[in-house]
Amino acid sequence: MAQLRAAEPPARVPITRIVEMARQVLEIQFDPEETRQIHEAQHLANEHFAAAHESLERLLQTAEEFQGQALQTRNPNLDRSWLSPRRWFAEFRARLLRQQESFNAQLARVIGLLADAETLRQQQAALGHLVASTNCLVRRLSDLDRLATERSRALADLFGLALERMAAAQSAPAPCELPVMSPEERERLRALVASVAEASAHTAALRAELSRHVAALSARVEQAERAHADLVQTVQAIADRTVRPAAEAPIPARPATPQPVAMTGGLPKGMPVPPLNFEAFEAATRGDEQRIAREQRAYVAWFADAPGRVLDAGCGRGEFLGLLREAGIAAYGIDSDPQMVAHCCAKGLDVMEAALFEHLDGLPDASLGGVFLGQVVEHLPQKAVLALPALLWRKIAPGGRVAIETINPMCLTTFSGAMYADPTHRRPVHPKALEFLLGSAGFGDIEIVFNAPVPPDEALQPLAETAPLEPVLKDLVVQANRNIERLNALLYSYANYAIAARKPV
Q1: Beta bridge partners of 4
Q2: Is the pLDDT score of 20 beyond 70?
Q3: What's the predicted TM-score (pTM) here?
């Protein structure tokens, strides 16, 4: 309680001055609106961080998916040793698809740059640290606000008590004794005033620091959002370019060209086309008749028990007809080239000029003992190849055979030789395709024979040991020779194959 003592009238410190000082002290408090705005800024910053965190997680997931797809564009066989045949096949494929492989590699590099997960996670961690610091500052500011409010209330109570005493002293008749605070109350008043001043200064510093953090957080969030938008746009553009079908690629406008003249067979109307001399062409590209006869002699046994005359369709120079005549098998031939027909007739063979499908279609059903087609199907259109087995089934008598010889597409060296040496060839026919077509038409006892082996001197030569080798080097030589054998089987095996089938009785 306050103690009363005699004192002189307060001339040096008027009551009005003390009241004014008390009011100024009581005005030291926080603005509730400003505190509310700070809390709203904190809530907004937390929402921004949550959105940025979710966007970065989605971006990282998308980037990882694109990285996985980019890695799939890399052919792992390119990393194998040159001693492995898979490395050779991969290189061959890469050369054929060089442009696509180049685009895939470029796409993989771009996605690798875009999908820098370490940088994205560092940005995410920086945003998290900044938001955590801001939240800590806001909590400290709230605690300080609450402490300052409590101290202000205590100070207000103390000043209210002092004002009551001063008002009582002012209304009392002079002379009077002024109320005087005890030393404990004066010390308490000084401590409260000092703590309020300190809290005010500390709060101002916290507000300034909080403002800097909020500004930095806003700038970082805006930067992350812009980077995320640019990154998503770039990745989407690459994805669109990757999955867009070739037919959707924009076609550049081309200047109008004058209408071409009427065309017939790709040539201007009326332009003469010199005929191809197949007799001379066969002699120059296929070889002499004796060699062809030696290669085809193995097929004669298929027609030894033919139930009728055998047709050599597309007989050419008549090598197989001559072999059938030697074996005593009744046969005749057809060919669409008049020079070939004349050549065969000069040899005493029964040959007529006719087209394959027209001749077969005009024959009575089951009238042929067998049909041989040597180097014919590679000249036919796809639809004709598909229709041929059913037509042969109708025209061959029960128990009769069909034999078809053609270029072997499983020997890749034929594509650099026989297949494209003849300008009238259309496409090779795989033995599996003919086997399926003949079986589907009803033929049975299907047999495939490979013929015309590539000369050994044209194949890859194995490595030879000119001197004793160390075990490691010897193993390498053995493995290399095995791979050379595999390559020879793929590249330099048999130039032709023949497929034979019987019509069931």
Answers
A1: 179
A2: no
A3: 0.48
